[in-house]
Amino acid sequence: MPLLEMRDICKSFSGVYANENVSFSADKGEIHALLGENGAGKTTLMNILFGLYQADSGEILWKGKPAEFASPREAIEAGIGMVQQHFSLVRNLTVLDNMILNYSGNRFFLDRKKERQKLLTLSERYGLEVHPDARIADLSVGERQRVEILKTLYREIELLILDEPTGVLTPQETSQFFRMLKDLKNEGYAIIIITHRMSEILEISDRVTVLRDGKKVAEHLTAETNADQLAHDMIGRDLHGLTYTEFGEKEGAPAAGESADKRDENRQPVLELKAITRRAGKHTHALRDISLCVHAGEILGVAGVEGNGQKELAEVITGLKQATSGELLLDGKEIGHASVRERYESGISYISDDRQSDSLIPDMNISDNLMLRDYASPPYADGLLIRRGAVKENAKDKMKEFEVRASGTQGAETKVRLLSGGNQQKLIIARELSDRSRLVVAAQPTRGLDIGATEFVRERLVRKKESGGAVLLISADLEEIFAISDRVAVLYDGRIMDILDRNELDIRRIGLLMGGVTKESV
Amino acid sequence: MNKNRFFSILVPFISVLLAFLVGCIIMAALGANPATALGALWKGAFGNTRNVGTTLSRATPLIFTSLCACFAYRCGVFNLGGEGQFLIGSVVCCYIATQSGIVGLPAIILCILCGGIAGGFWAAIPGLLKIYRGQNEMIISIMLNYVATLFMGVIYTNWLREGSVPQTMSVPDESKLSRLFGLRCTSAFVIAVVIGILVYYFLFYTSMGFQLRAVGLNMTASQFNGFAVKRYILFSFIISGVIAGVGGSAELLGTQFRLINGFGAGYGFDGVAMALIAQLHPLAAILVAIFFAALRVGSTTMQAATGVPTSVSEIIQALVIVFTVAGLAMVKLPEFKAALERIFSAGKEA
User: Fewer Cβ atoms within 10 A, N terminus or C terminus of chain B?
Assistant: First the structure.
């Protein structure tokens, strides 16, 4: 009898399945890895187990008995602990205080001495060294994670769930972390680890379950599988053949067999990155020695699991963040020190992945948001004063051209807050894909959009490219990358693993690269 | 009209009605006839041109401080130091008016200009600390209020003290602001209204004002668009301080003529409350300031005529603020919107 069994779990959010008939189990003294792309349903499944969500159907057996956890508290009391991807520690309290905060033993009296001893015993036993009186704010990320794990162990759990635990760790911290996991496993804990890193799975886990689009697609014993197979399971669909022909028909180019080099000769490089490097910050990922080139009339896709430097790459190009070193050229001119505004004026436009917070001002109306970039220049303004008429005129034209639909009767005066996600994105496209833009940096441009809006956005990007613009398409959606990119760069851990031409696109290879496995190391 | 807009205008009016309703209950409990009392209140505030003049004169400093609050809030920063900036403006103004020897119109222009600059300087301190050191602008600006109040104390008890009473000498008669139509209210009121209109025009009709509001509504997006966010924050702080400083100067030259204990006390926070009731609209702020001034001026007449103490008027003022803030929060609640929808759809079917 397994310690935990989840049977046919279904969970949908507004009609879309996040989990569909997923079955899963975990045993004592075992590390079970849960693998999948972004949005495959890994975290949802674990959140159901931990009582954060309730399943629509299916059942959970805990120690052989049916169980249902209405809240994390119930899950913890039953013996299930979870360390979320984003830590939940009180920064201004000490380590010990954070432990006690979770305390549910004796509600009235607090024996700090005893608790302190308990903490010290635990941390010694598992080699999780932290000072009980250190303030969380003063600890490194690796140490904070140790505190998080201690916090769960403190509650005398039997099953430990870790959501992307190594995302924030340095390689040294990671190997130390793995040693600790093995210790815990030998102690008889059951461990579930959610990750997208292939090498880690192969190194640490005993069993792997792969989820894709909310469904369980495979379960392997780690000893009997390899990176190649896991990559195939994770990405699944054979997109390659399908989209290639589709693309060929649609665009009529490039002719099959024509080499990448030959085409590049005829094309003007628009954006060039030479050895761009950026140190990791508190909340940012590092970029390591990134060199790439986007040509006129080309869409360069950047594939990769999110959190591997995508956002930082986009922001270094658009000027929101500075590179630590390296060169950034637009049309052959160095722009590494230009401001956001100057870069926009020389032709870089940006479709951010967080449209509500980065690209729009939700409390302003459509016409104001459309002139956000060019608020001070004709036709919207004469020097100091805004020309309301021209602004309205522009809004009307753009809304028509880009099919922005505002419900209600106010048209261009509608606050952007009230628009649907698709219409908001169309608005951004309408603003950013103006004639002056030479390079479009599009980060997750179709995230959260319905099929119609998605098609619209992709079509506009392709049209931009056809009219001689350059597009850098950063997307976690491989299907999207395959559908419209001419070349594909794979980003992993802040590094470009490889840049593949359209002809050489191979789903397995991309999957391996995304998991941090190069050809040589397989 | 837009539903949200409609409610944002309706709520303050309903709040005023509710506040008066509570006020009436209190009056009745005190044994006065609410109708008579309110009548006296109205007469005291607007009964004749003389009273109107007094009301407008009382409203003038409030208009300045509420415009001061409006301006900074529009850029998303909270300037709670309107009072300090107001006082520093009046201190500098007083110094120049009494010590420079210049009199008449040149003195007035110079005094008001320097008062404005002083207010701007006082506001620049929290602004600079915010953008360069990330300090909380609310705390710093509040603290500077005390510094300004105590500094003014030094002025009227020591430096510019006149005679045995702790107060400064008076501004020369030639440098006083002229009265409008012989009423209590002076050209300071005109200056306040003009500044209000300028602020409105700047915020809504210039590209700089557009950027400033954009920064206030979404700082991240403004950064992504390459706006000089920090510069705008500092700018809005300084201009906000200039408005308060001009207000302090105008109050000194128009109404008080000398600095004494209690000069300008409470105007800063009154301004903040009025700006919030006006929902940061500069023109609405002028009206709200006049309304509050009327309550204050009228209450004296009310007390004299009906024996209802002026504190009842203060209760009403406080309730207007409480009801408006609560009301504006309420109409944003999803539950309220849902209930509204039900009522509207039921109305349509019927």
Answer: C
Model pLDDT, residue B295: 93
Contacts of B217 in chain A (CB under 8 A): 361-364
CA–CA dist A152, A159 (Å, integer): 10
The minimum CA-CA distance between B325 and chain A, rounded to whole Å, is: 19
In the predicted structure, residue B247 carries a pLDDT above the cut 80:
yes
Asked casually if ipTM beats, i.e. exceeds, 0.85, the reply is: no
The C-alpha atoms of residue A165 and residue A83 are separated, in whole angstroms, by 8
Sketch out chain A's domains with CATH numbers: 4-235 (3.40.50.300), 239-363+433-514 (3.40.50.300), 366-414 (no CATH)
| pLDDT score, position A255 | 41
Q: What pLDDT was estimated at residue A257?
A: 41
* Amino acid occupying residue A302: V
| Cα A241 from Cα B45, distance rounded (Å) | 83
Contact A340 B218 (CB under 8 A): no
Sheet strands (E) in A269-407: 269-278, 287-295, 298-303, 325-330, 333-334, 348-351, 381-382, 385-386
Residue B339: CA atoms inside 13 Å, Cβ hemisphere, count? 7
- Radius of gyration (C-alpha) of chain B in whole angstroms: 22
Residue corresponding to tokens 């606050």: A415
Full set of structural domains in chain B with CATH: 51-337 (1.10.3470)
Average pLDDT over residues B173-202: 91
| CA distance readout (Å), A353 to A342, A442, A443 | 22, 8, 5
Quote the DSSP letter at residue A418. Answer: G
Tell me which amino acid residue A472 is.
Answer: L
Largest CA-CA distance found in chain B, in angstroms, rounded: 77
What is the predicted pLDDT for the residue at A522?
Answer: 47
Please give the Cα distance from A272 to A290 (Å, whole number): 10
pLDDT tens string A447-491: 777 767 888 899 999 999 999 899 999 988 787 888 899 999 999
More confident residue, B75 or B335: B75
Place of tokens 């419209």: A484
Strand partners for A328: A273
The residue of chain A nearest to residue B213, with distances taken between CA atoms, is A364
What residues of A are in contact with residue B208 (Cβ under 8 Å)?
A: 384
